[in-house]
Task: inverse folding
């Protein structure tokens, strides 16, 4: 019963509210960088309410069931991930063996759902976008998992999120060490690709393939995808906070630190997004398999030597 | 007014369609997105795909080539949607009123909600037109 409470209140409602706020911060900072005023604070919510009220169109040649189911699968996996993270963050004894691995698997499913939707919608541009998304997933997963491996090694070969948090409460944050800092840099660039934000937004390039896999979605399907992306904007930085920065603590001054850590990460992502041009998909894959993997391997070796 | 319509007026995503214009109106439409005018203040975004759009901005004189495309695109907009005609050509075919290639004005082909005259209209005029459109929809319901 308590898990259903966690699922609805923390996993869905709280994550959605923070995600929508984060998406507003992202749009507002982007506007300020371009000397504009930017949208009002409720804008992301209004967008989603509007999209829910619109007609849902299904292309003639589309595979109907996959087309309608893909956004729901993505949203469900994001809600599951955020429930797991909140459970571990609120009470570190809630942990089970291997929940870190479960989170890593569940975090790929939003990308998979975008691919499914893209291929199911029978549109050439959507197919191009989906195949780029596939290449991007192949690209960033290797350095991302190596970066997570650094955390596992530093916390005494533990694959429980709760133990990683406990380790950081006792021994200081993992980002404080050399290997932790290197892994954090790699992980931030990987979540930039996971969120499909600007240097790595080739799958959804608005100006080139007009939204990629989302091109045929309208109404409720698009609303669910937007909500999923906004929630990912909370879930992924939160995951990095848990792994590298000791998570979100609710006692006294640590609450303020937690909020600052989160806003700092979102602002960093937004600044990276606003100061870089889009790279081609082959450049992105080369970037992740070349320098990023090399840095991650160096971080793993340093972590094994105890640095 | 229903919640659906209220949200639509607070975040109208715009799709921009040229049916054979001379591109001046299109340039003025794009000017609305620049920092000087910044229509994202009102939640407006330029949608790339017709399936994401709420408002159809139409420029140009509706020549024979583009009329079929125009009808097809109008059928693809998820309803409820609004249509705005921008520029003299879209209103009355302007200079091309006697041309063999422009048989019918825009509002005989699809229903139009608001007309913005000018050749080309200024960005201020376009924004004022959209404000009038929002007030019209508010008053209607």
Result:
């Amino acid at each position: 019963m308590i898990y259903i409470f966690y699922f609805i209140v923390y996993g869905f409602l709280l994550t959605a509210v923070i995600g929508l706020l984060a998406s507003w911060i992202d749009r507002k900072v982007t506007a300020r960088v371009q000397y504009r005023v930017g949208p009002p604070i409720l804008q992301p919510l209004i967008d989603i309410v509007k999209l829910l009220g619109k007609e849902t169109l299904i292309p003639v040649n589309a595979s109907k069931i996959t087309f309608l189911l893909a956004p729901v699968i993505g949203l469900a996996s994001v809600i599951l991930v955020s429930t797991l993270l909140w459970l571990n963050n609120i009470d570190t004894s809630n942990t089970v063996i291997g929940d870190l691995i479960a989170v890593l698997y569940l975090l790929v499913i939003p990308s998979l759902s975008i691919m499914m939707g893209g291929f199911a919608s029978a549109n050439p541009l959507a197919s191009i976008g989906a195949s780029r998304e596939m290449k991007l997933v192949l690209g960033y997963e290797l350095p991302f998992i190596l970066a997570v491996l650094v955390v596992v090694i530093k916390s005494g070969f533990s694959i429980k999120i709760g133990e990683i948090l406990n380790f950081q409460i006792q021994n200081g944050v993992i980002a404080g060490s050399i290997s932790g800092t290197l892994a954090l840099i790699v992980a931030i660039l990987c979540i930039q690709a996971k969120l499909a934000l600007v240097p790595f937004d080739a799958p959804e390039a608005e100006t080139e393939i007009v939204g990629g896999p989302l091109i045929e979605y309208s109404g409720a399907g698009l609303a669910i995808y937007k909500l999923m992306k906004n929630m990912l904007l909370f879930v992924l930085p939160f995951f990095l906070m848990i792994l590298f920065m000791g998570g979100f603590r609710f006692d006294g001054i640590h609450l303020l630190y937690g909020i600052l850590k989160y806003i700092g990460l979102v602002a960093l992502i937004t600044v990276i997004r606003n100061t870089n041009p889009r790279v081609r998909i082959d450049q992105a894959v080369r970037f992740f398999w070349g320098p990023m993997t090399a840095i991650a391997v160096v971080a793993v070796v340093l972590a094994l030597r105890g640095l | 007014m229903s919640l659906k319509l209220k949200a639509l007026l607070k975040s109208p995503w715009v799709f921009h369609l040229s049916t054979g214009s001379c591109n001046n109106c299109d340039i003025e439409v794009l000017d609305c997105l620049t920092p000087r005018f910044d229509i994202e203040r009102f939640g407006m975004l330029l949608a790339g795909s017709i399936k994401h759009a709420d408002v159809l901005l139409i420029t140009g004189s509706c020549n024979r080539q583009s009329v079929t495309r125009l009808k097809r695109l109008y059928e693809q907009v998820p309803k409820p949607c609004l249509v705005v005609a921008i520029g003299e050509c879209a209103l009355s075919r302007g200079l091309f009123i006697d041309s063999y290639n422009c048989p019918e004005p825009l509002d005989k082909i699809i229903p139009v909600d608001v007309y913005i005259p000018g050749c080309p209209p200024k960005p201020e005029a376009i924004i004022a037109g959209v404000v009038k459109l929002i007030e019209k929809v508010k008053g209607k319901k």
